[in-house]
């Protein structure tokens, strides 16, 4: 079972280094059109995209997020969970908009933004472009909100940088399907620890053999590092979500 | 700019009615493999998939969610935001796992699950299968947690039903790109209201002309309906997220 689409999906890599060649407007529009056709929860179309094109803004974005790759090249799309557009529709008719701030509507907006981003990424990769998700956007959520002038009931979920790849790295192996797919109920395999041992070996081989940024690392190493520390401002994500009008249910 | 992948993405429709033909195991594995290769935040691989295959469980799922389509045919994948697998790694080494319950880690797990689901959906559509997202999973979050035996630090985000389509419906028009894409800062177009008028007309035409389930409806109608009411148990989403160990930052 193979076709161009499955080939594209199976060959996904994170690409961070882009050549100087810029995306033309037709390409940007094609990617956005693909994103806009994705499924949307309750047909509410609750996401937006902001392209950061101004170089001073890109520079500030890189400073805020600590993500210097994004500044140099590539087209920078920021995906926004957006209930503000629908809030405007409610307001114009004097309808209560209270439900838009509830937890399930925040989740729906995050789902919409995320699956749209993946369609954009897949479209990009299918025409030979490379892409990387910038989760670093959560390093400074309030500054991002200010930088992009985000109104109430919106939240910046992540960026996607898209450009012409300079090099294509080796593909990073993933956990085996037996560790992530279960039938009828949640149940980690009984040999999960053994399976992690094997996977850690596989990942160490990958890091040893790759041509750039070679290092000794396992999956467990990475998890332990992510458990040990996290940028301080990430602890403000919940506060900023509330400030934006979300998750007020229990207050 | 066109190829099979972009063609697949641009032709997305929600398919809810499937023939009796079941997905074979090779197809299920191909879809899961495509999903597993997607980007993952901080390389933490924080999502899982549960296939509901047992018919009594499918029946209970349909009762809980009110989604009767899912019961009859099609393969039912439930996507889980999953920090439990990494919690196990931390526990095994005596490392604090506190960070896994923070808001940013919940978001990362939801992103991972969502973009993996979109890759699975795109792979399915590329080989002629149809799919629908089942957001109805949020109608009864605690019952879903119980039904699937979900451990701490997991949450069921949505289902994806995949099968062989009986009919292919017309494609539902989306908001124009000018309403969802901005440059450098968030800014609804000055003619947003006019643009909504046009879009409402376009959508009414679509509903009038489509062969099944024809009705008079606009985008604004739908939004007003979604603002007016929502299933009662959806108000428990935040509580269930907390019970699962998430968003405890401020408690």
UniProtKB/TrEMBL annotation, chains A, B:
Q: Where is the Nitroreductase domain?
A: 10-164
Q: Which Gene3D superfamilies match?
A: NADH Oxidase
What's this protein's family per the entry? Belongs to the flavin oxidoreductase frp family.
Write out the entry's keywords from A to Z: Flavoprotein, FMN, NADP, Oxidoreductase
Q: Does the keyword DNA repair apply?
A: no
Report a single Gene Ontology molecular function.
Answer: oxidoreductase activity
Q: Which gene encodes it?
A: nfsA
Q: Give the domain of life.
A: Bacteria
Question: Is Acyltransferase a UniProt keyword of this protein?
Answer: no
What protein am I looking at? Oxygen-insensitive NADPH nitroreductase
